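Consider the tokenized backbone below.
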């Protein structure tokens, strides 16, 4: 069942490269900011898109991180959540692509002092609501490389 919207982000495509001319396969990286349940965040993601057999349709698989930003207290470790996602993109007029898909999150903490990453599925941080969440997203990348995304919890 579709739950509440938890995320609204906007940003820019920061890079693209062709991985294979057969297909072709294209890697795209995006940097975005916005809020997740009122928490200011930065998202960095990279996905690989490959055309399907249907004209104008792309299958994409990606990975990324979400970082809580803003009002960190001195000595407090920043929260970081990793995710994977998969979706279908449809090429639009004027060079835009509209994506629909799913995202799978996992809570992680990053320690500034040790430089080590440790995983945790517990804890009460600002992004703890993302622990092992499955989300559904819709996003759009326009011809100028602007990125917009909304996500809902899938219960």
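A designed sequence for it:
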């Amino acid at each position: 069942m579709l739950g509440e919207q938890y995320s609204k982000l906007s940003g820019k495509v920061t890079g693209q490269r062709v991985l294979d001319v057969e297909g072709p396969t294209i890697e795209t990286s995006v940097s975005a900011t916005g809020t997740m349940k009122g928490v200011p965040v930065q998202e960095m993601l990279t996905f690989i898109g490959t055309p399907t057999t249907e004209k104008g349709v792309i299958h994409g698989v990606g990975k990324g991180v979400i970082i809580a930003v803003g009002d960190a207290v001195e000595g407090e470790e920043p929260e970081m959540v990793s995710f994977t996602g998969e979706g279908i993109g449809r090429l639009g007029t004027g060079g835009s692509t509209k994506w629909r898909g799913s995202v799978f999150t996992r809570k992680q903490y990053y320690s500034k002092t040790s430089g080590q990453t440790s995983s945790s599925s517990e804890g009460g941080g600002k992004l703890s609501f993302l622990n092992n969440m499955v989300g559904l997203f819709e996003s759009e990348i326009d011809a100028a490389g602007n990125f917009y995304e909304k996500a809902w919890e899938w219960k």
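The chain is about 0% helix and 65% strand.
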